[in-house]
Write a structure and sequence with these properties.
Blueprint: E1 5-10, E2 29-36, E3 44-50, E4 56-61, E5 69-73, E6 97-104, E7 107-112, E8 115-121, E9 133-136, E10 138-142, E11 145-149, E12 151-160, H1 166-171, E13 184-186, E14 202-206, E15 210-212, E16 215-219, E17 223-227, E18 260-269, E19 272-280, E20 287-293, E21 300-307, E22 315-322, H2 326-329, E23 332-340, E24 343-351, E25 358-359, E26 379-386, E27 392-398, E28 409-413, E29 419-422, E30 427-428, E31 434-441, E32 444-451, E33 454-460, E34 467-469, E35 475-477, E36 481-489, E37 492-500, E38 506-508, E39 512-516, E40 522-526, E41 537-538, E42 552-554, E43 565-572, E44 582-589, E45 592-598, E46 604-610, E47 620-622, E48 631-639, E49 642-647, E50 650-656, E51 665-668, E52 673-679
Parallel strand pairs: 1-6, 30-34
Antiparallel strand pairs: 1-2, 2-12, 3-4, 3-9, 4-5, 6-7, 7-8, 9-17, 10-11, 12-13, 12-16, 14-17, 15-16, 18-19, 19-20, 20-21, 22-23, 23-24, 24-25, 26-27, 27-28, 28-29, 31-32, 32-33, 33-34, 33-35, 36-37, 37-38, 37-39, 39-40, 41-52, 42-51, 43-48, 43-52, 44-45, 44-51, 45-46, 46-47, 48-49, 49-50
């Protein structure tokens, strides 16, 4: 039998009548008998008491110092951080250890096997009221998600409303009653996860947590959550009302159950655009959510449509396609991946309306074919195209074995959900990365492949390859954005991706047209669907002092960056011998902004510049290898801190300002810019 570590945290509660007591719980005793999987794990909690304001006290292992027990707390307010003199836990998985941490008034004392381990003063103990909940196996649950999982087994966990003495601690035995009686007690006997004292009668197991052989088994991705009332556990399952008003330009999910977005993909059917996104509501990629639009421009949020399964660490992205037998079964299919332990595999869901989705049984799980692919390598996100003769070909992120010459997965399916892997296509010119999508455009097969933080273009003559990095414009999409996908639409092949603000918030970038030129070079272009936003122009006032010869002149009016802006005009481009670039200055604070400077051939640099037009420092440089005349028409699309910049309708760059734009815009080399027009959707 695996040995146990016995952990105790002491404090006390003035009244022994539960959370209905008039005095809140300040002094208390938290007790847990724990069997750790290993002592290398960091920052997990055996037992946490946390309130709606996210104050918490917890039994935490190895957060500040590896291998040491500590009293965890919100922002370390009651945590001693100088732990140099504390003993490192050396107990193996079969060695029992008893640990105690006591809160008594303004002092915390830690014990190991009933002996003092450390002691230190605190300024004030934390009081917990009736809305506090209990976590067993997790340190924190709140606005930042789920943080601090413990891997191991809990034999017994308790909360006392008095500060037990060292002698009382030494007298405790797992699964045996004590005097005084605990306020709350989880023994996990008879397969039960409930509080024997009924103080926290509402409880549920999350993630991979389960009760077996009289213990709570924690796989490092699950926990037990308990509360006085079921409503206190409902915040993760029941939707809080969110703003479902229509959004244009850089759609952003607002539902708390969706959380922050990441990868996006689309499907069009019977006049509706369906936008799916992978998202993380609780600190992990834990759901797929949906928004819809009648035109691809105006979006209304639906919210979460799939959640990660129990025992899954996180989900991975996917895509959606029509069943090859749609005329008979009326079905659509979606694939997505899930990580369990070290392995990522692909699963499927089905729908008949593209809104309500049902997971298919695990018998459809698509696993690595170990003839060509690493068993525990990447296995994520099938993108499907029609296979000549019927059925589908698919491309996905994978880890091909050395010697195959491949960089991604390839396979086929007759029914859309039963997939067979084929040898990976040989690939030249790129390293490891992620497969975005493949489409046949103009007789060639183009792949958008994520590598080095950008999307690169690979080209093939046949669906099975070989795929070779594009000779021109190889970096198709870069900047503050990632993971572009093809989107077959009634208007042709479009491209979607997400855009990343510098505060980490993610938005849906503007749809773009996939445009290969006569040489086969693929570029992204302005999609005419956004012309509908330009119904009513807004004034563009010339600089108050006139263009003159100044390097920078501010327009006479500003724009509402919450509403968004489309600004168009003409640039007279410099010649190769002329080093005086022209462009735009976008203010994001008093006296500071970024400049978009366009040089000969449309080569564009973006970076910070002072309000006086000096001190330009390019953060990136983009050359789309365009053939431009002496002048080019530009488009600038902005909202909040995000922007997209186009020349002659070809996307030059996506970019995020360091902070929200103020709406004040200047002209760099103003004499070279003209015909300015603006619209605010």
């Amino acid at each position: 039998m695996r040995q146990l570590i016995h952990i105790v945290v002491l404090a006390g509660w003035a009244a022994a009548v539960g959370f209905a007591a008039p005095a809140p719980l300040r002094d208390k005793t938290l007790v847990a008998w724990v069997c750790l999987v290993d002592t290398a794990q960091r920052a997990g909690s055996a037992l946490t008491l946390i309130d709606p304001e996210e104050h918490f006290d917890a039994i935490v292992f190895g957060e500040v110092s590896a291998g040491k027990w500590m009293a965890g707390s919100d922002f370390f307010r009651r945590t001693h951080q100088d732990q140099a003199g504390w003993a490192v836990e050396t107990a193996g998985p079969k060695t029992p250890v008893q640990v105690a941490i006591t809160y008594r008034g303004e002092r915390i004392t830690l014990f190991r096997n009933g002996e003092e381990y450390a002691t230190y003063p605190i300024s004030q103990g934390q009081a917990f009221g009736g809305e506090a909940t209990v976590l067993i196996g997790l340190r924190y649950l709140g606005g930042l998600g789920e943080i601090g999982f413990l891997a191991g087994e809990i034999e017994d966990a308790r909360i006392y409303d008095v500060a037990l003495t060292p002698e009382q601690i030494r007298a405790l035995r797992p699964n045996e009653a004590s005097s005084p009686a605990p306020l709350a007690w989880w023994s996990f006997e008879n397969g039960q996860a409930g509080d024997l004292m009924k103080t926290f009668p509402a409880s549920r197991l999350e993630g991979g947590a389960r009760v077996a052989n009289g213990r709570l088994v924690l796989d490092g991705g699950g926990y037990l959550w308990a509360a006085r009332e079921p409503r206190l556990l409902a915040t993760q399952e029941e939707e809080t009302p969110f703003d479902t008003s229509v959004q244009t330009l850089f759609y952003k999910a607002r539902s708390k159950r969706t959380g922050n977005m990441w990868d996006t993909w689309l499907y069009w059917h019977e006049g509706t655009y369906y936008l799916y996104c992978l998202a993380n509501a609780r600190g992990q990629w834990d759901n797929i959510s949906l928004a819809s639009s009648p035109d691809g421009v105006h979006w209304r949020e639906t919210g979460r449509i799939l959640s990660k399964a129990r025992g899954v660490t996180w989900m991975g992205t996917g895509s959606t396609w029509k069943s090859p037998n749609h005329a008979a079964d009326g079905k659509f299919f979606m694939n997505f991946s899930e990580w369990k332990g070290p392995r990522q595999t692909i699963f499927f869901a089905e729908s008949k309306d593209l809104v309500h989705w049902t997971r298919l049984p695990g018998t459809y799980e698509f696993k690595q074919d170990e003839r060509w692919y690493e068993r525990n390598g990447r296995w994520d996100c099938i993108y499907a195209i029609a296979r000549p003769g019927g059925g589908l070909y698919g491309y996905w992120t994978a880890t091909p074995k050395a010697g195959t010459g491949g960089r991604f997965g390839f396979g086929e399916s007759a029914d859309g959900v039963t997939w067979t892997a084929l040898p990976p296509p040989k690939t030249e010119g790129v390293g490891e990365g992620e497969a975005g999508a493949v489409e046949r455009i103009g007789g060639k097969y183009y792949m958008m492949f994520g590598t080095g933080g950008q999307m690169s273009t690979l080209v093939a003559d046949r669906p099975e390859g070989p795929f070779v990095a594009a000779r021109k414009n190889p970096s198709l999409l870069s900047g503050h954005t990632y993971f572009s996908r093809f989107f077959p639409s009634p208007q042709g092949v479009l491209v979607n991706h997400h855009s990343i603000a510098r505060n980490g918030q993610v938005y849906f970038g503007l749809l773009k047209r996939a445009v290969p030129d006569a040489e086969g070079t693929l570029r992204l272009a302005w999609w005419e669907g956004y012309e509908g936003l330009k119904r009513e122009a807004v004034p563009v006032l010339a600089p108050a002092a006139g263009p003159g010869t100044a390097p920078l002149a501010m327009l006479g009016n500003g724009f509402d960056m919450d509403q968004g802006l489309v600004l168009e005009g003409v640039l007279r481009l410099p010649t190769p011998a002329d080093t005086n670039a022209c462009g735009l200055y976008l203010e994001h604070g008093p006296g500071k902004g970024i400049a978009i400077r366009v040089g000969a051939g449309g080569i564009t640099e973006i970076g910070p510049m002072t309000a006086g037009g000096a001190g330009f420092k390019p953060e990136n440089r983009v050359d789309r290898e365009l053939s431009l005349g002496p002048s080019a028409r530009f488009r600038l699309v902005m909202k909040l801190s995000l922007l997209e910049f186009y020349l002659d309708d070809i996307l030059i760059q996506c970019f995020s300002l360091p902070e929200r734009a103020t709406g004040r815009i200047g002209l760099v080399a103003p004499g070279r810019l003209g015909e300015l027009k603006a619209w605010q959707p």
